[in-house]
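User: Here's a protein and a ligand (NAP). What would the complex look like?
Assistant: Let me lay out the input and then the predicted complex.
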Amino acid sequence: MSPFPHLFTPLDLGFTQLKNRILMGSMHTGLEESYDGFKKLSAFYAKRAKGGVSLIVTGGFSPNFRGRLHPLSAQFSTKMAVRAHSKITQAVHEHEGKIALQLLHAGRYALHPFSLSASSIAAPISRFSPSKMSQRQILGTIRDFATSALRAKEAGYDGVELMGSEGYLINQFICRRTNKREDSWGGEYKNRMRFALEIVKAVREKVGHEFIVIFRLSMLDLVEEGSTHEEVLILAKALERAGVTMLNTGVGWHEARIPTIASSVPAGGFSWVTARFKGEVNIPLITCNRINTPHLAEDILASGQADMVSMARPFLADPEFVVKAQHNKVKEINTCIACNQACLDHVFKGKRASCLVNPQACYETEFVMERVLSSRQIAVVGAGMAGMSFAVTAAERGFDVVLYEKTDKLGGQFNLAKCIPGKEEFKESIRYFTEKLKRLGVDVRLNQVVTPLVLKGFDEVIIATGVKPRVPNIKGIKHEKVIDYQTYIKERPILGSRVAILGAGGIGVDVAMLLTHPPKQDLDAWLKEWNIDKTLSFAGGLASFSHEKASKEVWLLQRRNGKTGKGPGKTTGWIDRLVLQKRGVSLLGEVEYKKIDDAGLHLLIKGKAMLLDVDNVILCTGQASVNDLVSKVMQQGQKVHVIGGAQNAGELDAKRAIRQGVSLALRL
Ligand code: NAP
Ligand code: SF4
């Protein structure tokens, strides 16, 4: 008996069946526009179809030029596109998967001067002002959606998903926030939802009945002047009547200043939104957002909150997520830790998406695993993320690997990261690599201080010894109130009520989060922290709740000018900054540290002297590489490779460390 009976119950859509309840949600990978991208995309999707996912939704393709996100981004409307996309659909069908093309018109989110919208109101996240669509343009766009859907069918797609959420064009027509028209496409709700309904009707007319049409419905806009719950219900029912096969959940516009998928969002934190539609429509409902384990997905289905579960990033982290769940090998799943660092952060910078914990994602044709013919003996020193990712990949290729670690734990810096509120899931990466080391029979030696002598006889030596905290040269740095971040996170000593954090990089922000986190935060408390009204009584799902300040007074300091406490990620930095502001953390830049003494921390801020009478000072002032073994082992005449923080502490991050480990192991 499967441990996930609901997940693996087929879903009958009448004209076709989905073999399980797991949908791979739409993700833009950057391959859609790149040279040779379709070959790579085919390999990417084929691997996920082979891994058992029942229905894949592609990244968004615009039905016409003006709907593109930026001038060179993907469009699907021509016969030529049909030929190119046929490669993808064939590859997926060869593995008995199904695939739908997402049609997305960016509307006012388009980053070019030809953008169009219901009204001429610029988005706060775009520097371009859209033109108000004429009646002719509206009808033309509806036709373009229908033509693209027909072409999708010709290309072998099993369906389309119409992007009606996240604040894109269809959503812009639906909400008062962006639709100030006074004609038959604006004003009362009946008119504002007309654009969405006309698109569905036109699409259905072109593609016939035996074709999946998913509508991604913005069930919770999370912006002012968004739809009310009653309005969304009316639209959901009308969409069903217009011929939609399934309704997918959309939560939050891109311009909403509320996190919806970051790691700090509680797992499954929005499935209650989808549940409000159960019993109101008769078509299957798909839920999504922060679902990353089969247990959570099963619970959501078992509790009747939805009929199908959509996951996107978990399929970057592990293409075999479904088949591993099906065969009760959950411990072997490489879990998505919702960091966004290699997926969304890349896409927002115009780079190809990948995955921090699985650098092979979107590089399936480039990072190819080849078994070695003759094995070599390899020693890896340091079992942080760089060392472990190297060790498992090398062992998988057939090398004989010994992994040395001086502490009693695998995982290096991830053991610190997992203690930060909102980053608890980092422990899953340690679990995944630990399991894999075991399965591959890697000889792991904990509590082993490695000397050059220990390494004699190995064919290759990998130094992955990581970093140690940098201690800045400040008068009084040895004062008893000073502590480095590693010691603080590991030992959690009781601190006074006033604390200064020196250094506002990723780690300074993490420490500030840890210091100011409320003692207990369940889903309801988290929703309140972000002013989300679970009763759905107001437009956009927003309300205004009062917020308590943290019990500690905290200063987060940096020497540099510029934004303080923004964290390293484009898609998460703004969240960190907002949370810290809500909790009353003082973010100060252009600081010069003068001395630390019994009175506190003496500073110059923009040249002006100041004393922070703090009880403690936590050093988050960067790191220094630990690599003293390198030269000694080289002197023994051995081949040495240095990876991760040991190679470059300045740009230490887990994404680079894991990628370096995998890529070196594939090259050897
Ligand atoms: P970091 O981002 O380089 O920050 C180090 C901080 O120390 C900076 O604020 C720097 O700013 C300050 N600093 C450097 N030298 C100093 C000195 N001699 N005296 C006083 N201050 C000094 O590094 P980190 O915070 O240690 O993080 C390390 C890596 O971990 C980062 O690359 C990051 O990507 C990764 N990380 C990521 C996350 C995440 O959420 N994604 C979280 C934690 C860590 P000033 O020079 O302006 O003072
Ligand atoms: Fe998940 Fe991070 Fe990988 Fe993105 S980069 S898929 S968020 S683990």
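Summary: The radius of gyration is 26 Å.
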